[in-house]
Design a protein that fits this description.
The protein is of the alpha/beta class.
């Protein structure tokens, strides 16, 4: 399982950091957690057919996590018509808004790309890649995702309200090959206590506000059993 950090910004695009988007590759298949930036352009630059995208999982309906989905679905609706990704959004309003936007573009009628409502528990399992969701408190409908493939597990916390009240309890007592967690709303040092409750191999901090970046090395010193790194745009990680 390979992770590629397409966008790692803290909420607004910066000169070297685009909005939240992570691509996951396994067994020749592509999946995304969040699509806050124009991922369709990255697929084209990397010569990855949009048809290879099998699943897109949105943590919550804030623009910096979902805006790029509009253009991806648009072009798959009328041009890459053999693409058939399964999309998971946290709210019914988001599903209707996405369909409504495509209809408003007046290119072709909505052709029925599958969009599902995310929920707690296993939301997707195609035999190659499994996603389990746990609801968080960042918004009225927000989720953390456990991604499993090739015997590896990565936790994407999404945005959180607070570490002690909101860090996914499903992480405790299990092995996590990677934890991808945010630090726009969280003091990164607060993660140290909850990290102790799992067997973690490595941590990537993304979605980090500039004023909190100096605190990440303090977390790294506390968590000396595994590496703690900043996720940067374009970084590729093989689990």
């Amino acid at each position: 399982m390979k992770l590629t950090f397409i966008g790692t910004s803290h909420g607004v695009p910066e000169a070297e950091h685009r909005c939240s988007c992570t691509m996951i590759e396994t067994c020749g298949r592509i999946y995304f957690v969040d699509m806050g930036t124009q991922a369709i352009e990255d697929l084209r630059r990397r010569d990855i057919p949009p048809e290879d995208v099998k699943g897109i999982f949105v943590t919550h309906m804030h623009g910096d996590h979902v805006n790029g989905l509009l253009s991806f679905v648009d072009i798959c609706n009328w041009y890459f018509t053999s693409a058939d990704p399964k999309i998971f959004l946290p709210t019914a309003e988001g599903i209707e808004a996405l369909k409504g936007w495509i209809n408003a573009l007046e290119k072709r009628p909505w052709r029925g790309i599958e969009i599902n409502l995310a929920h707690e528990g296993v939301v997707y399992d195609d035999g190659f890649f499994k996603i389990t969701a746990e609801q968080t408190k960042h918004t009225r409908a927000s989720f953390a995702y456990f991604a499993e493939a090739e015997g590896k597990t990565a936790l994407f916390t999404g945005d959180l309200r607070g570490v002690n009240e909101d860090y996914p309890k499903g992480a405790f007592g299990r092995t996590l090959d990677a934890v991808i967690c945010e630090s726009a709303h969280i003091d990164p040092r607060d993660y140290a206590a909850v990290f102790e409750k799992s067997d973690i191999k490595r941590v990537f901090i993304n979605h980090c506000q500039p004023r909190k970046m100096p605190l990440v090395p303090e977390l790294a010193k506390t968590c000396d059993k595994f590496p703690v790194r900043f996720a940067t745009d374009g970084m590729e990680v093989k689990l």
